Amino acid sequence: MRHIRNFCIIAHIDHGKSTLADRLLELTGTLAQREMENQVLDDMALEKEKGITIKSHAIQMHYMHEGEQYTLNLIDTPGHVDFSYEVSRSIASCEGALLVVDASQGVQAQTISNLYQAIDHSLEIIPVLNKIDMDSAQPDVVTDEVCDLLGCSPEDVYRVSARTGEGVAPLLDAIVEKIPAPKGDPQAPLQALIFDSVFNPFRGIIAYFKVLNGELHSGEKVKFVSTGKEYDAEEVGLLRMKLVPTGKVGCGDVGYIISGVKSAVEVKVGDTITHVDRPCAQAVAGFEEVKPMVFAGMYPVQADKYEELRATLEKFQLNDASFSYEPESSLALGFGFRCGFLGLLHLEIVQERLFREFNMDVITTVPNVSYKVWTTQGECMDVHNPSGLPAPTVIDHIEEPYIRAQVISKSEFFGPIMKLCLDRRGTLVSQHYITADRVELTYDMPLSEIVFDFYDKLKSISRGYASFDYHLIGFRQARLVKLDILLNGEPADALSSLVHEDHAYDLGRKMCLKLKELIPRQQFDIAVQAAIGAKIIARETVRQVRKDVTAKCYGGDVTRKRKLLEKQKEGKKRMRQIGTVQVPQSAFMAVLKLDS
Question: Ramachandran region of residue 551, left (φ > 0), alpha (ψ -120 to 50) or beta?
Fold first, then answer.
């Protein structure tokens, strides 16, 4: 065990985590030169296209240090805040972390929040200054920032260029010397923490785990503690670029298990694996429950694909534990699921991955929250979807969920953050200076105001520094109205939303303008209207595509032209009565990003 080192790489987005991982794999000879490519651990096509890491990637390396061979288990983590749950799981399964800071950009938001997570888990932090070969690099200035943040001396900060490989070799020695070996008892009953899992159509579910105590051999009978189900460990092994079966995973090591589990419900990330005949006394404390920030409905394009979508979401949740879902139904779209996401980028990525990995095309509705509707008879109804709202005549009042939100930020962004919270109907509860330049603001706000783009807005006005947390505090009465979008007089169910009375007119106008741009032109005029009940509050028209029917009329009386135009007008009228308007998926996504 003293030759094992488990560590992860944490940083703000685009500070060079995956490139540094490439250099470490090269130096340890884990991959042959011909197998190397840029960001080799980002194995998803979507990650390569967008240039961001979406999933944490674990890989094992071997390194000779002072004549002894060490096993290094590296986890490369995402940088974007929407995938912060991946980072928290990686940190929980490591003893040390490389904190990477871009020498040209300095310390940024995720640098700080990831660092605090790592410190909470008592990880050994090795600060690394990356991109020192760039012209815009300011290594001395940024080194001082890192020293202020960590309270270390400038000699402790390693200066590297992950692109050229400069300074990476001493970093490997530092990993071996500074990061502690995992603690655990190889003789104790087996206690292993599942930190990730994937679905393989041929072999069932493959769970990735870290052994905290004991050892796991293939062929042994194991039990998953939270479900209580028992399995045979058909194959166990280590994580290299491919899965390498070894027959045994020792104490302190990271590996995978294939046990023929076919049902996705039976494997939970954060669960504990133990032996059936000699179980451990208690389960490992797993990870904190993830809090979805954005809720949206997902519906199959064809109604008969509902069961297929359910099975797909089960398999998808294995690989993305921050995604949550529950069944719901809608008048226009039929049966589907109400899904929770960590942000709008997460929603986009989930949609794209469902299409690419499972060939599942879905319709996503406008994000919303659940409301309590009190009728004039004194009954209380839970409404999850605007389409489930009863007629306005029977509604006495509507209550919406309220949250207590804590925003921690640098004090220079105090003003813009206060304005943002007040615009979103927030009321200030308290403000508290943690340090001279860090302030904590506590607000009571409606949950519906944060599900749209509050998080994204907060990040942009605070240049990524602000962190945000919330918990529900109950329901309060509010003046809410149902905003319907009508296309040719027909309500588009997926675009309807419940909004505050004061914001309804403004939002309706913006949605109409946006849809006018995005709906493709047809052979007939399309009226795009925003309505509250029977009252139309905004309207735009998508103009028809017209053929020049008078082109063949040259000379002759003007009535010939008029006759042809009248004939065309009649045809357009008939077309409009039977024509249907298809709303492209891009329109749903664009409405979510409206600058509301």
Answer: alpha
Distance CA 200, CA 443 (A): 45
d(CA 557, CA 427): 71
Handedness of CA 571, 576, 578, 584 (dihedral sign): positive
Blockwise average pLDDT, block size 10, the chain, 596 residues: 83 79 79 66 67 76 82 79 74 83 74 78 85 82 81 82 82 84 81 82 83 83 81 82 81 83 75 81 71 78 85 83 81 79 80 86 77 83 74 81 81 86 87 74 84 77 73 81 80 75 82 81 79 83 76 76 80 63 62 55
- Domains of the chain (ranges, CATH numbers): 4-178 (3.40.50.300), 191-275 (2.40.30.10), 294-364 (3.30.70.870), 371-478 (3.30.70.240), 482-592 (3.30.70.2570)
108 contact partners, CB below 8 Å, separation of at least 6: 12, 15, 102, 463, 464, 465
Distance CA 175, CA 166 (A): 16
Q: Which whole-number Å values give the CA distances from 580 to 320, 387, 392, 535, 583, in the listed order?
A: 37, 20, 28, 23, 10
User: How many CB atoms within 10 Å of residue 113?
Assistant: 20
Does residue 283 contact residue 272 with C-beta atoms inside 8 Å? yes
Q: Is 572 left (phi over 0), alpha (psi -120 to 50) or beta?
A: alpha
In this prediction the pTM is: 0.69
Q: What is the 3-state secondary structure (H, E, C) of 397-433?
A: EEEEEEEEEEEEEEHHHHHHHHHHHHHCCCEEEEEEE
How many C-beta neighbours within 10 Å does residue 472 have? 11
Identify residue 35 by its one-letter amino acid code: E
